[in-house]
Design goal:
Blueprint lengths: L1 E3 L4 H21 L12 E3 L8 H7 L5 H32 L5
Parallel strand pairs: 1-2
């Protein structure tokens, strides 16, 4: 799972794949048996979810279109809830601080 700017989903996927590629290599070097696949689901900072997530969900075994759509909606709703909490915390910080953010 990766949270990202709404306009840089591809960059987040590339960055996370590189990060986990190194982890997979380290685990293999330590004697672990690790699957080479990295499945990455991204969610935008403004609660947007890219269509490419549906392919990843399918690879993870969620084969019914309706189930993938439900998962995408759930991801967006969860992200929106967290976004609302962050905005609330930010406004609280601005209110209690003399600084302008």
């Amino acid at each position: 799972m990766g949270f990202t700017s709404d306009m840089s989903f591809a960059g987040t996927v590339t960055r996370k794949q590189e990060k986990y590629r190194l982890l997979i290599a380290a685990l293999r070097n330590a004697g672990w048996s690790v699957a080479p696949l990295t499945h990455l689901i991204t969610v935008g900072a403004r609660a947007s979810v890219p269509v490419i997530n549906t392919n990843v969900l399918k690879e993870l075994g969620i084969v019914k279109v309706a189930d993938r759509e439900t998962m995408q909606r759930s991801l967006a709703c969860t992200a929106a809830i967290h976004l609302n909490m962050m905005v609330w915390q930010y406004r609280k910080l601005c209110k209690t601080s003399s600084k302008q953010y």
